[in-house]
Structures are given as C-alpha cells and as structure tokens.
Amino acid sequence: MKKLLSLVLIALIAFSLLPASAQGVVRVFNWEDYIDPEVISLFEEETGIKVDYMRFTLNEDMMVQVRNSPGYFDLVFPSDYAIERMISEELLQPIDFEKVPNSAQTLDWLQNPDYDPEHKYSIPYMWGTVGILYDANRVKEPIDSWGVLFEDTYKGEVFMLDSPRDALGVALKYLGYSVNSKNPAEIKAAADLLIKQKQDGIVKAYQVDETKDKMVAGEGILAVMWSGDAQYAIDESPEGIDLTYVVPKEGSNVWVDGMVIPASAPNPENALAFIDFLSRPEIAKMNCEYIRYSSPNKGAIELMGEEYTSNTNLNPSQETIDNCEFFHDNADVKVLYDTFWGMVKNAK
Amino acid sequence: MSNMRFPPWAIWAMLAGLAGFAAMIAASVRHNRGVRRSLFAYPYGLWMVVFTIIPLLLIGYYAFTNKAGQFTLDNFKTFWDSNYEMNKQLIELGMDPQTLGSARGTVNVDTLVYSLWMAFLCTAICLFVGYPAALFMADREFKLGSTLVILFIIPMWMNFLLRTIAWMSLLEDNGLINTILSAIGLPRMQLMYNSQAVLLGMVYNYLPFMVFPIYNALAKQDGKLSEAAMDLGASPMLTFWRVTMPLSLPGVISGITMVFMPSVTTFFIPRVLGGGNTEMFGDLIERTFLSADNWNVGSALSLIMMILILMSLTLLRKVDPEGEGGSTI
Predict the structure, then answer these.
(1) What is the pLDDT of residues A88-145, one digit of tens each?
(2) Predicted confidence band at B96 (pLDDT cuts at 50, 70, 90)?
(3) ipTM over 0.90 threshold
(4) In chain A, how long is the greatest CA-to-CA distance?
(5) Which SS3 state, helix, strand or coil, does residue B60 take?
(6) What is the count of structural domains for chain B?
(7) Contact at 8 Å (CB) between B267 and B283?
(8) Domain assignments of chain A as residue spans, ordered by start
(9) A314 near A227, Cβ under 8 Å?
(10) Which of A227, A231, B266, B308 is the most buried (most CB within 10 A)?
(11) Is A331 part of the contact surface with chain B (CB cutoff 8 Å)?
(12) CA distances from A12 to A21, B171, B317 (A)
C-alpha cells in the first residue's frame, strides 16, 4: 500500500514539473536521429513551449503525411528537392524573417539557394555532399574521379548507394551530365554504365545505412557515401584502415535539409521561435557535433573553430561546392529514374 | 478518395494482412471442417476484419485504379511490361519511346520467375535436409530425439531479422568463417553478396517449417504398423518405402506449403546477405511502394503474388484432400 501511495505521489510530482502548457506546443517533424535531444529540453525549459517531436526516414513519406494532415505539423525538415516540390504544391507558408533574427547566421552561399528561388520559405538546417570514401592503404593511386568506380582495378570491392537518384546521379556526373538530367537518352546512358559496372563484377553491394560500418570493418575499398556518414566512418575506423573522403573532380550532388513551416501550421509563431532557437550559434553547434553533418551556421562554425574549418569533409572549399549541384524536383521524369533503376537492380 | 494515402505503418499492416490471409487459407485447407459460431471467435474476427479484410480490399482498390483513382488495367500491363509506365510518360512528354529502343521490359516478370525458382530450390533443399532430420527425431530408439527437437526450436525464439544479420557476421570477407579459413592457411572466400548466400539464409530460416510438420506426422504414426510390416518379412528399406513414408506424406505436403509460401514472398534476406545484388519479388514490391512511391503498381504486383500462392495451395489441396498434414506450429 505504501509502495502504491509513493508511486502515485511520484507521478503527481512528475506531472506538476512538466512545463506549463499555457505557452502551447510546436509539432516538429524531423528526420530520424537528427537533433541533439538535449536541445529539445533546453528549448522547452527556456520558452515553456512543449515540443511534440515526430520522425520520418524518407522525404516521400514525409510529404504524404504533410499533405494528408493539414493543420497538424508546425515545423518540418525536408531536403532541397522536397522543399521545391512543397513550394510548387503550395504546402508551405513564407517565413517571417523578422522573427528569426538568427537566420542572419546562414552561410552566404546558402542565403539564396536555387531550390527556394525567392528565399522565402526555408532556412537551412544541415548540409553535405556525396563523394567516395576509400581505404587509402589499399588503393593504388590517389582517388579523384568517379571513373575509378567503373574500372576493373577494384573489382568486387565497390559499395554503391541503393537509391535510384543517388546511384544514377553518380553515373550521370561521370558522363558529364547534370544530376537533374531529364533527357531520356542521358538517363539511359547512365543506367547502361551502372549495368555494365554490375555485370563486370565491380559492385560488391548496393546498400545505404550498412555501408559505413562495412567500410569501418574493412569489407570494401571504395564506397559512394554521404559526407556525414563518411565522417562517422573515418572517426570510427580502427588502426590499419585509413579511410579518406573525396568529392570527385567531375562534381557531385550537394544537399541541404531545411526548416519549413507548412501553410496550414496551427502554431506558426512557436515554429518561428524554434527555428530561431535552432539557428542560435551555440545550439547549432550542439546539433552539428551530435549529428556530424555540415553546419550552415556561421556562428556555430566560428565556435567550433579550427577543428571544424580544417576538416575538408565537413567544410569543403567553395570551389568544390560550386562544382556540385542540388537535386531538383523531378516529378515528371521520376518514373524514368525508377524504371531504369529497376533494370540496374535486376541486371544479371 | 482519389488522394487517399497512408502512412508507412499502413503498408506494413497490409503486408501483415497478406501474410495473415495466406495463413488463413493454409489453415482452412488443413482444417476444412466449417466455421464454428462461437462468441470466443469475435476478437479474432475483429482482428481479421481490421488487418486482413480491409487491407485486402485496399490492395484490390489500388491495383485496379490509377493515381487519380480511375479504373484502369495499366498496373497489370506494367507487371507484364515493366517499361509500360515509363513509355506512357515519354509519350506524354512528347517523346518517342522507340528512340530508347525499348522493347518489352522484363524486370517484373523475371523477378517473379527468379523468386519462384529460388523458392523451389529452397523447398527442395529443406525437404532433402529436413526429412532425414525428422526421421531421426521421431525414432523412438534414438534417445537424443527430444533434445534435437529443442535444438531446432531454440533459434526460433530469436527474431528472424536478428538471425539473418548474425549470418552476415559469419559470412563477411572479414567474418568468422573467413578468419578461421585464413588462420589455418586456407584462402579466403567470397561467401556473401550473391544468390547462394540468399538461398542459405532462406533455408536456414525456413527449415524448421519443413521439419516440424514431418516430425509430427512421423511421431504420431503407430509404431505397430512398421513392426507388423517387418514381421511379415519386409526389409527395413521396404518398410520405409511402403509404410512409413506414405503415412508421412501429409506432413511433407504441409511442410512444402509452409516453406514455399514464405520463400516466394521473401524480402530483406536478399538485401542483407545478397548485398542488394539480387532482387526477389518481395523486394520489388517494397521498392515499388516506397522508393518508386507507386502504390497502384505495387498493389497489382501483390495481388498477382497472392493469386499465385492461392493457385499453388489449390493444387496441393488436390494432392492432400483430407488435409492431414497438420502441424503444431
């Protein structure tokens, strides 16, 4: 009986300690494992606004949910091309930049990205590149081109990304085309290159999340990878495996995950407050160090200092960035990418 | 209705419904003794409606409609010609599909044929390995029989995903097997990222479903029957072929059903052990739903899969009309 009573008391005390709900809530829809949990409690403590936090793993799933639940989400974190799609579907509302003074911290080259042409709807949250992660101890020459993925030299030692746009994007770039190509002949040429690569036995596996751990374990020599995953693998790699990341000279894909407010958001004011909080240099630094992708926040970069700025994986030169392209919304040719990707996956 | 879409969990619910439907059919084939009307059946009935009937209706709805919700057979044309949707879009964009030299796209049909072939191989290996194992376990003279049964069951306490991932650490280039090989001076082998590894994973996961129905059929056989055969002068070999084996056939058929069905619909194993180099029909359906974001074609593919399973079950029912291949699983 005493036990029960104390349990009830503990529960009561715990409830009374919860932040007052008078300040309302902000319903956040973010990528899986994409925020330092500490940041959420700091925000709740400071503002009294409760963060109702939900997660997704695919832009496509996220868009379905935002479309189908009008008036539910206050703040969403789509990638570049998804932002473009959502703008065109009129799912977003313009951001009142006056209420987000910390947005001035955004890096200059991200101030006016082409996926949000008028720079009205989004503020960057994290960004990164796609490149090649390789084991420097086992390559014969310095790696600087996508071409190495299509030669016999590293037969059976190459990990590719298991995703139509990313895998075809690599082949398109190597052939000198845009990652956003809408030309059927170019997409076909890219697919043919990937089919030949597979038939020649160069590819070890098509994977996404597993690859970084495989590279740490020395299971492959080359892997197409996102910069943040590459940095994770480099940090985790044991003695004897010398992992290095490079963005090939032909150029690549650079991506941004931004913060946007749905047109139907019930609490846009709270969303603005949360965006401003996340754009604070100290908070952006916390998130960057937790997630290990690149920060678009000048103040945070300054706070992280030499250790961050000298890391060319996370902080590539402007020249490298300018050589890369954002993905753009490709709704009208998506079926081409998916169909050709099916041919690659089933080539024998 | 036209924009009716569902969150990812709904897809999983539908897949679960599919599996449930298959299990239901299997159960009704085995115990075809009519439905007992009982109050106790209501919770299960509700469960079936929510997770089997409704998802099935939805799959049917999506399979026969396009993205705008209008009736169409295009999704089934896409099954036959995997380039169908692409060519339609090219024409819409004012381009001639012929410039890509596109003949009929065989990806979907090929994947189905490959899945059926893999399922056949898996079932055959399971039968070949499983029958002798069941025979040993059911033998009253064999003292370790019940221990063997437990050894077969214990791995099934673990989740199937975990067991499959565990195989990965055995088969990897720097995995346990290769480490041992190189320690004793033998060359390393590429054991993973191919269809043999996928087959191994399938056999490993589905073998118990073959062994237990056969074991049950053998264990409940009256020992006096084979004793009588021997007394009448039959050799042990003849006794097996003329008495033991024919009496165990219902168990064999049940085992074949229970291995073949999940084998055809296998997914995830090709991705983990096959390194995504070989795609099975289950993976194709998943990719069509999620990555290609095409619920209509995905539903059509699922429907075709279900019809195939139904057909193979009907065939089996002809072979085993009494439905005697009962099992405890």
Answers:
(1) 999 999 999 999 999 999 999 999 899 998 889 999 999 999 999 999 999 989 999 9
(2) confident
(3) no
(4) 77
(5) helix
(6) 1
(7) yes
(8) 18-121+255-315, 129-253+325-345
(9) yes
(10) A227
(11) no
(12) 16, 53, 61
Cβ-based contacts of A58 with chain B (< 8 Å):
290
Token pair listed for A119: 């720079």
Question: Nearest-CA residue of chain A relative to B288?
Answer: A338
C-beta atoms of A219 and B174 within 8 A: yes
Structure tokens of A302? 């300054």
Average pLDDT over residues B44-65: 87
Q: Is the pLDDT of residue B114 over 80?
A: yes
Residue-wise pLDDT tens digits, B143-197 = 777 888 888 888 888 888 888 989 998 999 888 999 999 999 988 888 899 999 9
Instruction: Name the closest residue on chain A to residue B174, using Cα atoms.
Output: A219
pTM of the predicted model as reported, rounded to 2 decimal places: 0.83
Contact between chains at B276 and A163 (C-beta distance less than 8 A): no
Would you say domain A18-121+255-315 falls under CATH 3.40.190.10? yes
Question: Which residues are CB-contacts of B202 (< 8 A; sequence separation ≥ 6)?
Answer: B118, B122, B263, B266, B269
Size of interface A-B (CB pairs under 8 A): 92
Whether residue B222 is contained in a domain is answered as yes
Question: Which residues of B are less than 8 Å from A156 in CB distance?
Answer: 190
pLDDT of B145: 78
List of residues 6+ apart from A49 with CB closer than 8 A: A19, A23, A24, A25, A26, A43, A270, A273, A274
DSSP code of residue A59: H
Q: Does residue B74 carry a pLDDT above 50? A: yes
Is residue B73 a part of any domain in this protein? no
CB A243, CB A230: distance < 8 Å? yes
Kindly provide the residue ranges of all beta strands, DSSP E only, lying in B157-201, ordered along the sequence.
none
Which of B75, B79, B192, B277 would you mutate first to test chain A, the one with the most A CBs within 10 A? B277
Predicted confidence (pLDDT) at residue A315 exceeds the cutoff of 60: yes
pLDDT at position A19 = 43
- What pLDDT score does B49 carry? 79
CB spacing of A185 vs B193 below 8 angstroms:
no
User: What is the pLDDT confidence band of residue A206, given thresholds at 50, 70 and 90?
Assistant: very high
Question: What's the pLDDT tens digit per position in A21-41?
Answer: 446 999 999 998 899 999 999
Residue with tokens 């997630």: A291
CB-closest option in B93, B105, B277 to A205: B277
Minimal Cα distance from B2: which residue of A?
A68
Is residue B108 within 8 Å of residue B78, measured between CB atoms? Answer: yes
Any domain includes B289 = yes
Q: Which superfamily does CATH assign the domain made up of A129-253+325-345 to?
A: Periplasmic binding protein-like II (3.40.190.10)
Q: How far apart are CA B48 and CA B35, in angstroms?
A: 14
Handedness of CA A179, A181, A187, A190 (dihedral sign): negative
